[in-house]
Write a structure and sequence with these properties.
With 118 residues, the protein is mostly beta strands. The chain has no helices and eleven strands. The chain starts with a strand and ends with a strand.
């Protein structure tokens, strides 16, 4: 049974930083592309970032380029999202996803809430 468990969310002031983690189990982690999505209240879920099997393939939403960094540690079955220079519009539930191929999203976590507010 595949499980994706996100952590690291919380309340942060504008301009602050957070690092999200997503621990995966029940799959061969190194064979899956990983992604972060987010969904704000009243809005559709949107892609934040993708990372390929070995981290050479990366993709970011324009809204987070230069501020967010996705990375992975295959030895720990974990994908990370480092978020810097956070803005109030980054407030959302952040979800981790795993896909057998690049830009596929087969499994989802339960999400971790990020709130950016002063």
């Amino acid at each position: 049974q595949v499980q994706l468990v996100e952590s690291g969310g919380g309340l942060v002031q504008p301009g602050g930083s957070l690092r999200l983690s997503c621990a995966a189990s029940g799959l061969t982690f190194s064979s899956y592309a990983m992604s972060w999505y987010r969904q704000a209240p009243g809005k559709e879920r949107e892609l934040v970032a993708d990372i390929g099997y070995t981290a050479y393939m990366l993709n970011y939403a324009d809204s987070v380029k230069g501020r967010f960094t996705i990375s992975r540690d295959n030895s720990k079955n974990t994908v990370y999202l480092q978020m810097n220079s956070l803005k109030p519009e980054d407030t959302a539930m952040y979800y981790c996803s795993a896909g057998r191929f690049w830009k596929t999203y087969d499994f989802w976590g339960q999400g971790t809430q990020v709130t950016v507010s002063s």
